[in-house]
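Ticket closed. Logging final result for Polyprotein protein.
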Amino acid sequence: MNYTSPIGESPIRSATPTKTAIWILTLTEGPVKLGEADKHSADHRVVERIQLMSPNGIFYWCAASKPTVVAVFRTPITHASLIRIGQLTYSADHRVAKLETSIPGMIQTALTDVVTPMKATIDTLEARIMVCEHNQEDTNELTTLKAAITAFMNDVDQLKATDLCIVFRTAEIPNMPEIPSATIRMRI
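Final structure:
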């Protein structure tokens, strides 16, 4: 399709894919012609091939003689849409806050599930040591059991002493680069 008429007049339309003039809608300046767009702006998007569709539905591929911009038309931002965006943001923030408060409890439950069997094992070993101490003198097995119990107790104490808030405060989330829209130029 060929649109060569200026804005405000009806475009002249032809089926020849030889020449293409694209006008881009921007939020701040209005329409910008492709040849006048800054090559480093979001309005300038180079397309090596243009897909053109003929009236009979057959697709033709032709090489672009000039860089071309694909224009996307969006609905205008209204007061109601801004309110809806704010509501969605509030809802997302509320869900994140609920999730943040539930995560320490989930971690505490997982740690308790791991520590409880360890504590039972430690209690069993302590009982065996008490029986061994009353019945006989220290042996290598008894010394080994005492060392194992001490190591288990240190592990349990370390797990209990872990402050979950510190773990979450030191976690860093890498900044993700923002991907600008290829068809709209925004100047702030």
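Residues 79-135 form the longest helix (57 residues). No further action required.
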